[in-house]
Design brief:
heterodimer; A: 269 residues; alpha/beta; 10 strands; 40% helix; 16% strand; B: 144 residues; mainly alpha; 0% strand; elongated
């Protein structure tokens, strides 16, 4: 009875608001605004929200701490810094000590920073972010580019033109999508000055992950990883770790989507 | 899209947060990394640090030098015998060099016997000779 009265009242506004009134089994009323979203779409956005928010609740959702250990870092010579004269003032908190004038980087701190950086990368990759690997070291240019290709992300190991990020729409065309994360395998350019990309990323509000050696400036890097950036073994390790994290994150995303029933639209071949 | 290009004020996160709070960036345009950053912030805020030119103030030593007690023994060994007969093979992570053997033997003899410094040095040399490692003094005659 009360329900019928309510329907009569709603009839007046039905034409203007196009509300459809329905009755569930236990007698409560619910309305669905039919023209705004179809029920299928609303369920999709709800599940997407759940997929996106669930990983943020666990500290190590992608179990990245099992990818590397302190011994691995030591064997890859990540603790070796430059000589005392090359030391940057802001890197002093990250140094363990100075052995015969060569700076030794504190690997305990590096472990924590690396864990944080890999975790951030994984979450950004999980959410479908565009990741750019940058390194101006010609020795590792090929390695960085092939790493980026293997994980389906992007790399820039050539000369950084001034307006790459800051003048993006003009250089690449309107509506270009800038990277959501920039990973620096070496934060210095070929004349031992800070890479322009760090300052540009901070300008464009893009977070950065960077391997900072004892002669680098870690202040503008969002997630610095104090460590050696000159030894091939060290860069090998970093590339492998980033590749594994990004692949893991993307696989996890596919898995979660399948789990929640959101199958990806089949691409026409 | 709206943004703030002031990298010297605040961090990337604070700028985006304030832009969203003031409504310049709509919440539909929220960057992908925003939630991740708020859930897992870095250990130190990535603030811009002005390059300080304080060359007139003497810098205190914040980074300590790393020295071990065995360094004294090693220094004496290198002064007397040079690098030693065996080449250093750094590709092996558990490589035991001649100098390290000397240091081990020296510490053993120091713990066991009651010899003084100079005698201890000679005794270690003799002990290593007994094991088969020939130590040539620096500047001495070259053996083929």
């Amino acid at each position: 009875m009360a329900a019928r009265a309510l329907t009569k009242g709603l009839l007046g506004i039905r034409n203007t608001r196009l509300l459809t009134v329905g009755y569930s089994r236990n007698g409560h009323m619910y309305t669905t605004a039919a023209h705004v979203k179809s029920p299928q779409n609303r369920i999709n956005s709800n599940t997407t929200d759940k997929i996106l928010s669930q990983p943020l609740e666990t500290a190590d959702f992608f179990r990245l701490s099992e990818l590397f250990s302190l011994k691995d870092l030591f064997d890859a010579r990540i603790h070796l810094g430059h000589k005392k004269g090359c030391r940057h003032r802001l890197m002093e908190p990250y140094l363990f000590g100075c052995r015969l004038d060569q700076d030794i980087i504190d690997l305990d701190q590096t472990m924590e920073h690396l864990q944080a950086a890999l975790n951030f990368t994984a979450h950004v990759a999980y959410r479908g972010g565009v990741i750019l690997l940058v390194s101006r070291r010609r020795q590792f240019s090929h390695l960085v580019e092939s790493t980026a290709q293997d994980c389906g992300e992007y790399a820039h190991t050539r000369y950084w033109q001034g307006g790459l990020l800051t003048n993006g729409p003009i250089q690449y065309g309107p509506g270009v999508r800038l990277p959501d994360l920039i990973i620096f395998l070496s934060t210095l350019n070929n004349v031992f000055q800070q890479h322009v990309g760090i300052r540009d990323a901070a300008k464009m509000n893009i977070p950065t992950v960077g391997v900072v050696d004892s002669n680098c400036n870690p202040s503008l890097v969002t997630y610095p990883v104090p460590g050696n950036d000159d030894t091939p073994a060290a860069i090998d390790l970093y590339c492998r770790l980033f590749k594994m994290t990004i692949n893991r994150a993307k696989d996890k995303r596919r898995q979660m989507e399948l789990l929640h029933g959101l199958s990806a639209a089949p691409t026409p071949s | 899209m709206a943004g703030s290009r002031l990298e010297k004020f605040g961090t990337v996160f604070t700028r985006v947060r304030d832009l969203m709070r003031s409504g310049v960036i709509k919440s539909s345009d929220k960057p992908i990394w925003y939630d991740v950053f708020s859930a897992f912030p870095p250990k130190k805020e990535p603030l811009y640090v002005k390059p300080q030119s304080r060359s007139y103030i003497k810098k205190e030593e914040t980074v300590l030098n790393i020295y071990y007690r065995e360094d004294e023994i090693r220094a004496k060994f290198y002064e007397v015998y040079g690098t030693g007969p065996r080449v250093f093979d750094l590709s092996k992570s558990n490589f035991f060099s001649t100098c390290e053997r000397f240091v081990e033997k020296y510490k053993e003899l120091k713990c066991s016997g009651k010899l003084d410094e100079a005698a201890l040095f000679e005794e270690t040399g003799k002990a290593l000779l007994a094991e088969g490692i020939v130590l040539r003094r620096r500047g001495g005659p070259m053996t083929i």
